[in-house]
Design a protein that fits this description.
- The chain is elongated.
- Helix content is about 55%, strand content about 10%.
- It is built from 7 helices and 7 strands, in the order ββββαββααααβαα.
- Helix 2 packs antiparallel against helix 3 (about 105-135) and helix 3 (about 105-135) crosses helix 4 (about 140-150).
- The protein has a 3-stranded antiparallel sheet with strand order 6-5-7.
- It is mostly helical.
- The longest helix has about 30 residues, at about 105-135.
- The chain has helices at about 55-75, 90-100, 105-135, 140-150, 160-170, 180-200, 205-224; strands spanning about 1-5, 10, 20-25, 30-35, 75-80, 85-90, 175-180.
- It has 2 domains: about 1-50, no CATH class; about 50-224, Up-down Bundle (Butyryl-CoA Dehydrogenase, subunit A, domain 3), CATH 1.20.140.
- It is found in: Cell inner membrane.
- One of its GO terms (cellular component) is plasma membrane.
- This is Putative paraquat-inducible protein A.
- Keywords: Cell inner membrane, Cell membrane, Membrane, Transmembrane, Transmembrane helix.
């Protein structure tokens, strides 16, 4: 099966790796005969297609969404001085940075802590639904979407890194202290769960849907 330059589907007289009796390791990409249980190079478990992959994707996705809610409602940063104490959420801290004349830093924090996580949730949900129910969007586009989500997942931790750096640098004893709030742990868990959800998704399922559609179209054409 293949995609033409215009995005149309065609059937090629060529075997897929699974039809040829081969399976690739998703960790080191080494190819082994189908039925091999463990990769001889890295020791990872070899599975041609995991029927429970989408279930794990949704399980980690729901856990990530549940952790993301308190990450944005509880304080990310707690600052205490001799005169007063202050707590800041992610969005509140970005607004405060903007008010203090640092719009660039505020934009980066909003993008990394709000925009990217929400985009990841939407993209992972769309990919899982497109595999289950089909999609008009080309498989190549969906594959690129998956690669982007898998790559940028780790960069969403920037807010937690900022809090950790501030907490370690600004410790002035009785004068002022900065400590991470409960949202820091919730946000870190949300990022980790989202990364696990993306890693649980098997991108080969995207191409399986294309092959199934081509076979169905070919059968209908022959009957006609």
């Amino acid at each position: 099966m293949a995609l033409d330059r215009d995005g149309s589907l065609t059937r090629l007289e060529a075997l897929t790796a699974r039809e040829a009796g081969l399976v690739a390791c998703r960790r080191c990409l080494c190819v082994w005969p189908l039925g091999t249980e463990r990769c001889g190079r890295c020791g990872a478990r070899l599975v041609s297609r995991d029927p429970r992959a989408l279930s794990r994707v949704w399980a980690w996705w729901v856990a990530g969404v549940m952790a993301y809610v308190p990450a944005n409602t509880y304080p990310m940063l707690r600052m205490r001085t001799l005169l007063h104490s202050e707590e800041q959420t992610i969005i509140g801290g970005a607004i405060e940075l903007f008010r203090l004349g640092s719009p660039g830093i505020a934009l980066i924090i909003l993008l990394a802590s709000v925009g990217i996580p929400l985009a990841k949730f939407l993209c992972i949900a769309f990919l899982a639904l497109s595999v289950r129910h089909g999609s008009r969007i080309r498989a190549r586009t969906r594959m690129r979407m998956y690669e982007i989500v898998d790559y940028i997942g780790r960069w969403s931790m920037i807010d937690v890194f900022v809090v950790a750096i501030l907490a370690s640098l600004v410790q002035l004893g009785m004068v002022a202290t900065i400590n991470p709030g409960p949202a820091a742990l919730a946000f870190a868990l949300s990022v980790i769960f989202t990364m696990l959800s993306a890693q649980a998704f098997d991108p080969r399922l995207i191409w399986d849907g294309i092959e199934t559609a081509v076979v169905r179209e070919a059968a209908e054409a022959e009957r006609a």
